[in-house]
Design brief:
single chain; mainly alpha; 1 helix
C-alpha cells in the first residue's frame, strides 16, 4: 500500500516543482504590474488551484486504495492509480498569455 501512496505523492511533487519557476516568474510580473495586492490575489488563486488538485487526487487515491485492498472481486478490473496533475498557472498571468 505504501508504494502506491509514494508513487502518487512523488509524481505530484515532481510536477509541482517543475511548475515552480513559471509560477515565480509570473508572480514577479504580477507584482510589478499590479503591486502587492495583485500578487497576493495571484498567489491565492494559484494556491487554491493547487489545493483543489491535491484534494481531488487524494480522494481518488483513497477510493483506489479502498477498492484495491478491501474489495476481493477477481472479476472486477482494478482502477488505475490516480495522478495529481501539474499545477496550473492562472491564464492571465502565464508566460503563454504574454
Amino acid at each position: 500500500m505504501s508504494a502506491d501512496i509514494t508513487t502518487v505523492v512523488q509524481s505530484a511533487e515532481e510536477r509541482f516543482f517543475r511548475a515552480q519557476p513559471e509560477f515565480e516568474k509570473a508572480a514577479v510580473a504580477v507584482l510589478h504590474e499590479e503591486g502587492q495586492y495583485g500578487a497576493e490575489a495571484f498567489a491565492t488563486q494559484y494556491t487554491g488551484q493547487c489545493l483543489k488538485q491535491v484534494g481531488c487526487g487524494y480522494h481518488e487515491l483513497v477510493d483506489y486504495l479502498m477498492f484495491r485492498y478491501l474489495v476481493d472481486h477477481a472479476e472486477v478490473v482494478l482502477p488505475k492509480l490516480p495522478v495529481i496533475g501539474a499545477p496550473v498557472i492562472p491564464d492571465r498571468f502565464s508566460s503563454a498569455s504574454r
